[in-house]
Amino acid sequence: ETGVTQSPTHLIKTRGQQVTLRCSSQSGHNTVSWYQQALGQGPQFIFQYYREEENGRGNFPPRFSGLQFPNYSSELNVNALELDDSALYLCASSLTSASTDTQYFGPGTRLTVL
Amino acid sequence: DQQVKQNSPSLSVQEGRISILNCDYTNSMFDYFLWYKKYPAEGPTFLISISSIKDKNEDGRFTVFLNKSAKHLSLHIVPSQPGDSAVYFCAARWSGGSNYKLTFGKGTLLTVNP
Q1: Which tens digit of pLDDT belongs to each residue from A1-46?
Q2: Fewest CB atoms less than 10 Å from the CB: which of A11, A61, B65, B84?
Q3: How many CA within 13 A on the CB side of residue A70?
Q4: Counting beta carbons within 10 angstroms of the beta carbon of residue B112, is it exposed (0 to 12), middle (13 to 18) or buried (19 or more)?
């Protein structure tokens, strides 16, 4: 069974640029959640996708957007990058969106905005 | 507004002794609590969870205690091993929501000394 994978591992961008981060969910999982972990903080919920539809959103501006594909892999897009967007971006997959399902995390993408 | 708080940024214990990690929460809607462990360059790994209908859950060396009246939970690791050295995140969620986003604390760095 393949775990959650994310790409790229590291990324450096400049202010104002756009970035796309990718996540492949664990086999059989149809729900993907994205989190931002700033330095010294716990992960913060960005949004969740269930069967290709957004299924809830945290307190992040619209320049954070996402997609989920028919194979349940997912993308996180961030437009007009700001310095404060520098963080570790984690995706987590779960079997379904049911509240009893455990979320399994990928290793994350480290984004640095200069 | 931090709804899940881990007030100890770090904890150091000797191998073989007990490690106690603490977590407080403010949102009384939370009804499910989880502990995740995170090694450097890896995503958080699910460790153990507890539902609000219980006050204790045990899995091998790991036990989580929940005190609802105090809105406090703790993770006990007995006996502690050097391989337990990691950042431990407490997380909470509300099962009645449309999605079950996890709200994380800032984490506690546990160091187990040989």
Answers
A1: 568 999 999 999 999 999 999 999 988 888 999 999 999 899 999 9
A2: A61
A3: 0
A4: buried
